[in-house]
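Residues determine shape. Next comes a sample protein:
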Amino acid sequence: MYTYTMTFVSEQPIGLPKEVISRHDVVKSAVVEKLAIHEFELADFNWTGAYSFDNSLSYLQEPYRLKCVVELRVRLDDTILKDKEAIYQRCLEALNRQEVILKYSRYINEPAQNEKCLISFDLNTAA
């Protein structure tokens, strides 16, 4: 298995108050809920060795009209990579089994009514 970084995007805001945006349990629950119903769309996946943080930031800029980007770094095998639904299920499994932890989560402030959120989960080395 190799480590890949999945990038999920949504035109909808994450819907969390600023006071809790850095709490792992709250953010994870919101992401799991939205990922399970495909409110987050799989926009990209990259072998982590070739991944750049700028990839995710670019989704929050023009011409995109996205409100939330979630990076999720997980181990995938070749069979999972061939099926989009399998990628969703593997990411949900990683979140639910504590295989990943919240690396960072923050709002990127523009005008207050147009806040955008960037969330990143990384491998939990203790898992």
Q: What stands out?
A: The helical segments are 24-36, 53-58, 78-81, 84-96. The chain has a mean pLDDT of 89.
